[in-house]
Amino acid sequence: MIHAAERTALGGAPQVVLDLQTVTKVYPGKPPVPALRGVSLSVAAGELVAVLGPSGSGKTTLLHLAGTLDLPTAGIVKVTGLDVAALSDRQLAGLRAGSIGFVFQQFFLVDNVADGLLYSGAALAQRREQAAAALQRVGLGHKLTAKPTQLSGGERQRVAIARSIVGQPAIVLADEPTGNLDQATGTAILDLLSQLNAAAGTTIVVVTHDEHVAARMRRQVRMLDGQIISDTITEPVTALPGAAGERITGWPGGPEGGPR
């Protein structure tokens, strides 16, 4: 596999994996609710990006559109160069299965890492082999036979990450990956995402309301009221503040609640 840096060294610019062009999303209602207002965003192969914003900023709607879980009201969404609006339901399912990995805050993804390959056409033995390799990569090689109820919250989130990378997708979308974790465990999960990005060139977009989490990412895209208000490159910090065991705090002004 050619990493983004290697591709550039070979004379080509990194591939654009995710491309949103003047995207609008309006949810029906009386009155209609605009969630995204003309958002444009491109993510190149090998990037580690934080999409940061408070409740109602549109960041989760952006993630759903990027993951082809929803379609825009207007504008263009391209994943690996494919315009999602031009794809059939079957083609969209194939795109999600083969090119997009998801890490959600909820832990129900723990059921079976190998299930992430169900639509790949791989035989059961091959799926299990790839699942074991993915679990090794996230530091759970010693838990291959464990049941979900025997795993801690941090271990379950590692399983969710393993499931997201098992098929070697073009992009991984992580929705509040530290949301239910204490500070020490959250730091370990962010370390893991950073390692996957640095060592394997995995393209990762992390959606968060937490300033400290976003500070771990080199590129920070800030959203407010359905718009991108800044898109900056910074030197990432190496750890979250606070003592071990302290819960990660939310956006300044209080914890996040309500629609995102």
Overview of the structural elements:
This protein has helices spanning 4-9, 59-66, 89-99, 124-137, 153-165, 183-200, 211-214, and strands spanning 16-27, 33-44, 48-52, 74-79, 82-83, 100-103, 171-175, 204-208, 219-224, 227-233. With 260 residues, the protein is an alpha/beta fold. The strands form 2 sheets. A 6-stranded mixed beta sheet has the order 6-7-8-3-9-10. It has a 4-stranded antiparallel beta sheet with strand order 2-1-4-5, covered by helices on one side. The chain is globular and about 45 Å long. The two termini are 35 Å apart.
Number of helices, where a helix is a run of at least 4 consecutive DSSP H or I residues: 7
DSSP strand content = 15-25%
The CATH homologous superfamily of the domain at 46-68 and 89-233 is named P-loop containing nucleotide triphosphate hydrolases
The coarse silhouette is: globular
Tell me the radius of gyration: 18 Å
CATH topology of the domain at 46-68 and 89-233: Rossmann fold
Query: What is the residue-mean pLDDT, rounded to a whole number?
Result: 76
Sheet with most strands: 6 strands, mixed
> In the CATH classification, which architecture of the domain at 46-68 and 89-233 applies?
3-Layer(aba) Sandwich
